[in-house]
Amino acid sequence: xxxxxxxxxxxxxxxxxxxxxxxxxxxxxxxxxxxxxxxxxxxxxxxxxxxxxxxxxxxxxxxxxxxxxxxxxxxxxxxxxxxxxxxxxxxxxxxxxxxxxxxxxxxxxxxxxxxxxxxxxxxxxxxxxxxxxxxxxxxxxxxxxxxxxxxxxxxxxxxxxxxxxxxxxxxxxxxxxxxxxxxxxxxxxxxxxxxxxxxxxxxxxxxxxxxxxxxxxxxxxxxxxxxxxxxxxxxxxxxxxxxxxxxxxxxxxxxxxxxxxxxxxxxxxxxxxxxxxxxxxxxxxxxxxxxxxxxxxxxxxxxxxxxxxxxxxxxxxxxxxxxxxxxxxxxxxxxxxxxxxxxxxxxxxxxxxxxxxxxxxxxxxxxxxxxxxxxxxxxxxxxxxxxxxxxxxxxxxxxxxxxxxxxxxxxxxxxxxxxxxxxxxxxxxxxxxxxxxxxxxxxxxxxxxxxxxxxxxxxxxxxxxxxxxxxxxxxxxxxxxxxxxxxxxxxxxxxxxxxxxxxxxxxxxxxxxxxxxxxxxxxxxxxxxxxxxxxxxxxxxxxxxxxxxxxxxxxxxxxxxxxxxxxxxxxxxxxxxxxxxxxxxxxxxxxxxxxxxxxxxxxxxxxxxxxx
Length: 612
Prior knowledge:
Blueprint: H1 3-27, H2 35-62, H3 66-94, H4 102-107, H5 122-125, H6 128-145, H7 158-200, H8 204-234, H9 241-244, H10 247-303, H11 317-321, H12 326-360, H13 391-405, H14 420-455, H15 469-479, H16 483-492, E1 496-497, H17 515-520, H18 529-545, H19 547-552, H20 569-580, E2 584-585, H21 589-592, H22 598-611
Antiparallel strand pairs: 1-2
Domain ATPase AAA-type core: 559-600
Pfam families: AAA, IQ
InterPro entries: ATPase_AAA_core (IPR003959), IQ_motif_EF-hand-BS (IPR000048), N-DRC_Component (IPR052267), P-loop_NTPase (IPR027417)
């Protein structure tokens, strides 16, 4: 496929996404009481997002233009998160993790393969070098420690060994006897043919016919093979002979060119950023200082004193330069101070109450304690789509595509290289942020001098919170240790194990085509292996592969893989690690027992696992 093909795939995916977003704005805002209609609405949206997901993933993987891939990546993360939100709504609606939508697929003229969850290739591709280096280190640690990654073979008893030898020996004798009888049969056959030839005499015509048959067959096969090669070259499906010899060198040259392009791309970014800092840095710095100074003066005229400078955690000068009046800025800063004081008082009261309770003794717990449960959407109230964390990402990516890439003329860009103007806009924000941090330090000192000179007061320095002694004592043992040493210790203790290279597609299983039919006669279908594979991809792989999806998608704390031996539970765990490049820790009770004794030992082990 050419670059234009993948550009068209991207364009079609963005059009489908725009239509889907408009459809959601129209249909998901009104409450709906019909259970069947709601499920069909969610299932249709789930299928549509899955098709968009497949197209965007293909375009992201094959396009060369890194600025396009960056926009696609943002939309791709949003689509993945939206799919997980749709899945959560379907689960809450049906109270089941498994859904049967074969009737909807039939109406849409789609196959089950069209809704198979694709695993984005950038999960592993973007950190391939790190994963390869980590695998080398793991192999070296296992080799130095003399640890075996495979289970030991169970030794056979003396009787079992004799039985195996007897079976093998009897089979060998049977094969020898059969071969001997075959030789006798062939020898007798040759003797009979020789007697017949001696009786009838040699026939030169038969010998010539036999030689001609073999020769003509050989010549015709050569001609057919040559014609087939010429046809493939004519159709463009095979390279001519003089180009095949240079294909390996050309591939190598292409790889080198790609690496050179990446290096040149990074160099261009650095050059553009330095030019922006040289040309516009001074103007940006002066403008920020003037705006912040003007805000100080306005605040003092209105509230009678200079405001406190916002901390880095609250945004620094961004809180001052936001589109707010000086009164609002001063009120927000005062409210934050009051909130901090109230929190300190509350924590102090809780600590005192906790100490009194310990001295008095434990009180019996009440059995009728109220537990906060998540709100369940009933049909009487009417179903309504929950607020989304990813619609804003999709809207932003869609608007960015329309503004920059939809009507862009790329006839001049044959190499699909980067666009310097887009880099300038992106790097200008980074330069402004770097300069703003420097200006914050200068203006904070200037504000302190103004307060001291005009109002005669010193600004209160905020005290940083200190960790409790217990937390610090637990962490001190790990602070000065490197990740490599922790990694080595976990491997040597057998907690971090090497994952087998298994893809999720290796877990073979077909889709259940009778799910809807069985439910119509009040029979709950048995989930198929394809359904299990889908859930592993949705709950295990997609949230681990993308940081954005992991932070904002519906939380899945754990997965339970249960079943008899040999059904593929461990295979699915290894597949999750392979598809996402994750570490595999064996924290089962039998494996942990005796390695880190005591409560403090277990806490230290968990800190090590989380740090690695």
